[in-house]
Amino acid sequence: MKIGMVGLGRMGANMTLRLMQHGHEVVVFDHHDENVKASESEGAVGSHSLEEMVNNLEPPRVAWVMVPSGDPTESTITSLGELLDDGDVIVDGGNSNYKLAMRDAKALAEKGVSFIDAGVSGGVWGLKEGYCLMVGGDPDAVKKVEPVFAALAPEGGYAHVGPVGAGHFVKMVHNGIEYGLLQAYAEGFALMHAADEFDLDLHQIASIWRYGSVVRSWLLDLTELALQNTDEFSKIRGYVEDSGEGRWTIDEAVARGVAAPVMAISLFERFQSREPDSFAAKIVAALRNQFGGHKFFEESAAAQVDRKGATDDAAGEPAASS
Hints:
The chain is α/β, with parallel strands linked by helices.
């Protein structure tokens, strides 16, 4: 089928290529001309505006939005809603809040345009391995786009999980779980790294755990890959961003009275990673000295300068996806 793809970042560009590999025709648009030209060179039909993209599609039109969540997504959906007609479909494949999906669907329905929220997982590996798709929407609208979902997902990796909002809700929880899994692996390998007396080969351990172990997973496969190149790994800064879904998951757990301590702590650990010298830790050290006379470590003037530079750098870090 023919589909429009708005947003040609790493995810959108790879999804476009995977769709074309499965015989679909993709009309693309991105605010960066070089991204459009790159997709054109691989066989996509390029557009220089949303209007041109819509005009290159055939009713019932399907436009997939793959841009950053928040204002970029909302403004794109609004603009598409003004260009599309009765029977057309908009798919939001970004990490948007499920409440916004429900609101957008209601507004678009007044014009007869259907809205689908598709949670997408797979990252940069999706082109080769396929994308797990958690889709929310009206059954008739989902049916129209199903050939696209089938092409993007590996066998067994796509499901219509419920009405509008369900797709993004499930993806939100998926990312909350991801936070916890990442933190568990991180703490385990950190503990082994601290066991100097054994001189453990962490890459070797990650490798053998992939076979037969109850903790094997794709994330463990990626851990093994990360530890394989020690020079590259040594350059990675221990600063971890969050893109919103973890916070939303904890908000939902609180609102619904569901205990989610692992996901909550993993989110707070990400916050802590951004503090080169935690003020809270200073308070704890000072209090231990006050009540018990416990030794505290004084920071040198040079270290204070280094710490300030690290803090300034951190303040300028761009947000990253989960």
